[in-house]
Amino acid sequence: MFLLSCLPILLPVLAGAFLFLWNPESRRAREIYVMASALLTTSIILAAILTTYTQGHDATDCTLVRFSSGMTLSLHIDRASMIFGMIIAVLWPITTAYAFEYMKHEGKENKFFGFFLMSYGVVCGIAFAEDFLTLYIFYEMLTLSTLPLVMHSLDQKARYAGRKYFIYSFSGAAAVFILLIFLMQYGTTLNFTYGGVLDLKKIVGEESILRAVFVLSFFGFGVKAAVFPVHSWLPDASVAPTPVTALLHAVAVVKSGVFAIMRLIYFGFGTEFLYGTSAQTVVMAAAIVTIVFGSARAVRAQHFKRRLAYSTISNLSYIVLGFTLMTPAGLTAGLVHMVFHAVLKITLFFCAGAVMYKTGREYVYEMPGLARKMPIVFATYTVSALGLLGLPPLGGFVGKWNIATASVALGTPMGYAGAAALIVSAVLTVLYLLPVTVDSIWSRDTLVYDDAHAPKDPNAYMCVPLLLLTAGGVALAFVSQPLMALLSGVAAGM
Questions:
Q1: 233: which residues sit within 8 A by CB, 6+ positions away?
Q2: Of 31-35, 189-193, 444-448, the least confident
């Protein structure tokens, strides 16, 4: 049964590598192969999660490599792993179907889908990592596997975005490497342990330096979570093909960042060691500043995907704020928003990609009148936008409300500042998301097209994922209570 945890990593990595060797000329053959690989990986992930949930962790634990008695490359599925694993398992095949159509005009599809599959396996490794060393190794591999996707077109903008992504990511990884050294020196184990791994005897007199290491490693992981001021690679990465930016901004890279921050706080240093200290103040302040900064920049951004990228920066720090509250309610709220944001934001990026694919328009001031010509795209955009800005009873409201109430319940000035930042961001979210809908419906499109080039909804490869994700985002809102019950198990250390 241990294969259930390692196969979701090995299978897509090997499938992606084989695609480079095979290099099929038939688009149909490649699509069947890639989708079969993605669906099989998804099936194994869900089977592993179900087995762990019903039979316990021992049924799926797996050690891939043993470096020494205390250092291993090993996998373990807990409730935090389950939720991140389910996010990627559901969204990756849907993105794959969308990419089949979108990548027709991008070219180099064998290369794209090869790295696309390999990235699937690497993110699974992050989700199922048992310890900080395993997390670090897969975290580094994620940069290497997604870098070719960011630089896919290899034009000047893509090369610049790739260099920036590489420099930021490996600088963050260097900070995380320092974390490993200190945990090996002052911790009882590198394995994730709810409540923390610090040895209370060893840390006496070293509290200040350890809290400084925590802040450093927070910003190290915060690179991929796009925390200010280490965020600027993310908007530049929007030059990548839309299936890539959708995964970067909703599922793979950024969620790996916030997931790692959650591991760092609750399973590394522990809230007992951090709560109420200057270290907590610093990381909370970073999250609060990022929330407002990201929303404000989104209002100003005119490029459609860059506007959504800045929105991602803001919403990621909603999740980070929940985690940095260092309370069970904050942890649960952060995980809830992590789920809803993934579904809502990937839908919005798919809508932006569909507009670009069918019309070539990239800027929000080019949207007037398009809703009449592309009703499915703009209907799904509008529903998901309303969800993300937090309109009850849609999913975004559930996450934001719980983060806000957990912030107020903290009863500190930083807690109240966090709640205020959420209110300011909610107003700004209305200003940067809804004008696209308003202009697309009520303004006139002054351009004239011939029948062959008139804007219209894309085909089923792109429309079906949009409809599925929108329906899923609405449905999740109505099962938010069972979802929160599952996630509260993480906060209880289960």
A1: 161, 164, 165, 168, 169, 223, 226
A2: 444-448
Write a three-state SS string for 196-215.
Answer: CCECCCCCCCCHHHHHHHHH
pLDDT confidence band for 490 (50 / 70 / 90): low
For residue 363, the 8-state DSSP code is B
455's torsion region: left (phi>0), alpha (psi -120 to 50) or beta? Answer: beta
Torsion of CA 335, 273, 56, 60, to 10 degrees: 80
> Burial code of 285-311, b = ≥16 C-beta within 10 A, e = fewer?
ebbbbbbbbbbbbbbebebbbbbbbbb
Task: Give residues with Cβ within 8 angstroms of 479, minimum separation 6.
Answer: none
Q: Are 133 and 150 in contact (CB under 8 A)?
A: no
Stretch among 266-275, 391-400, 482-491 having the lowest mean pLDDT? 482-491
Average pLDDT, the chain: 88
Domain count, the chain: 1
Burial 351-363 (b: 16+ CB within 10 A, else e): bbbbbbbbbebee
User: Whole-angstrom Cα distance, residue 169 to residue 163?
Assistant: 10
Domain of residue 463: give its range.
Answer: 3-491
CA separation for the pair 168, 173 (Å, rounded): 9
Q: Please, is 427 exposed, middle or buried when counting C-beta atoms within 10 Å of its C-beta (0-12, 13-18, 19+)?
A: exposed
Query: What percentage of the chain has pLDDT greater than the value 90?
Result: 48
H or E segment and range at residue 73 = strand 72-75
Q: Encoding tokens for residue 278?
A: 């200057």
Give the Cα-Cα-Cα angle 238, 244, 250 (nearest 5 degrees). Answer: 85
What residue has token string 């975005």?
161
The closest of 271, 369, 379 to 326, measured between CA atoms, is 271
